[in-house]
Amino acid sequence: MVVMGGVNVRQARFVELYLSGMAAGRAYEEAGYESRGEAAVSAASKLLKQEKVMEHLQRLRREQEKDGYLTRQEIRRIRHEMVNDPDVSDSVKRGLLVDEARMMGYNEPEEVDVDLGLADLIGKMRLGRPMGDY
């Protein structure tokens, strides 16, 4: 299904999330694509280079600017100035940095590949092995 500007629903959602300040790879995942982690980052980079996606992105940026929205770069510049301002409290600076990390996708948990089946785990627990041995 194609929405305005020749992009499909997932592409439109990706662009919206990306414009909201979400890291491209995370926006790609949240838009409903199957790739995760580095594969999502790579796929998002390729998606951002597609002509229709670029056009949709630029169109939405122009609309946001017309409506008085700040761009992601402007928000980051303002945050940077506030973090470096000696008159801003440490708690406010901490909040700004936490928000920045969230926007950039830095606070996402790393994927852990667990190769231990549930049956094996229960069996080891029944044998009374210490937790560190699992």
Structural summary, described in words:
The chain has 134 residues and is mostly helical. The protein is 60% helix and 0% strand. It is built from 7 helices and no strands. α1 crosses α4 (51-66) and α5 packs antiparallel against α6. The longest helix is centred in the middle third of the chain and has 16 residues, at 51-66. The chain is flat. The mean pLDDT is 79.
What gap, in angstroms, lies between the N and C termini? 48 Å
* CATH architecture descriptor of the largest domain: Orthogonal Bundle
CATH C-level class of the largest domain: Mainly Alpha
Determine the CATH topology of the largest domain.
Arc Repressor Mutant, subunit A
Global structural class: mainly alpha
Shape: flat
Please indicate the percent range of residues in DSSP E strands (runs of 2 or more): under 5%
Structural Rg: 21 Å
Integer average pLDDT? 79
Q: How would a crystallographer describe the biggest sheet?
A: none
Protein name: Terminase small subunit
Pfam families: Terminase_2
Organism: Rubritalea halochordaticola
